[in-house]
Amino acid sequence: MAITAQDVNRLRQETGAGMMDCKKALTEANGDFETAKDILRKQGQKIASKRADNATSEGAVLTQVNADGTVGTVIALACETEPVSKVEDFKNLAQTVLAAAVSNTSGTKEDLLATPQADGRSLQDHITDLMGKIGEKIDVVSYETVTAERVVAYNHSNGKLGVLVGLTNTSGNDVTEVGKDVAMQIAAMKPIAVDKDGVDANTIQREIEIGKEQARAEGKPEEMLEKIAQGKLNKFYKESTLLNQEFVKDPSVTIAKLLDNTSKGMTVTEFKRVAIG
């Protein structure tokens, strides 16, 4: 049967696929719209399979904190190239992923991707559809939540970095400003843990061994190596754990002191730093 421009435009409006892809799908489906939609979906599945191993170093990181400020969510939707990350359809999909993440109480990526959308199809189906339309791999590469007495979010200006920080002992104070400062500290300084108690044993052992090797290379006596290594480990804690880091805006205080000065006993319970690229 003849495929009219009106038919092609209707399918394009319903699927968002390109004009030529819609025309080819309708032609293959002999004008049947539902069959044509299935053909377009299969096109997305083929691209998803073909590009499964491709690197995704561009995309968008979004955060959201609930109304009472106790739960924060951060997601990262990645693609292969920067131009795709600027496309309106990609931006809309990122917002859809964030909305699904906020409503997904299980906190697992698998359940997130299975979240049904308004049309009854899963979030993963919608991601696959856009892959078919754009021709690139698209993937949810991060999905994190933080629950605390108070959660503050920070989004970097490049749209590819987001931070959630959970605070406790806020004593009813408005801690938004200091929370933002701490979140920006996390973004810039990339701490590996809240405090030294959060550093895993393997990392500690590795730092001790590195400290010993450095001291040995400098010709220090063997009996002094352990003490020197412990000193280097303490320096590592100061540089790499959030509460022990010097505050970037005022190096005379640590993050722990900054928080305590704002509200007695206030501290960080956890944080999440998510970046693309």
Strand content is 15-25%
Rounded to an integer in angstroms, the radius of gyration calculated over CA atoms is: 25 Å
- Globally, the shape reads elongated
Biggest pleated sheet: 3 strands, antiparallel
Distance between the termini: 48 Å
Strand order of the largest sheet: 1-2-3
State the helicity in percent bands: 40-55%
Helix-strand topology string? HHHEEHHHHEEEHHHEEHE
Query: How many individual β-strands?
Result: 8
Number of helices, where a helix is a run of at least 4 consecutive DSSP H or I residues: 11
Overall mean pLDDT stands at 91
Stretches with pLDDT under 50, minimum 5 residues? none
Find the structural class using helix and strand composition: alpha+beta
Describe the structure.
This protein is α+β, with helices and mostly antiparallel strands and 277 residues long. It starts with a helix and ends with a strand. 36% of the residues are buried. Strands 1-2-3 form a three-stranded antiparallel sheet. Strands 4-5-8 form a three-stranded antiparallel sheet. It has a two-stranded antiparallel sheet with strand order 6-7. Strand 1 (58-65) and strand 2 (71-79) form a beta hairpin. It contains eleven helices and eight strands. Helix 2 packs across helix 3 (33-50) and helix 5 runs antiparallel to helix 7. It is found in: Cytoplasm. Belongs to the EF-Ts family.
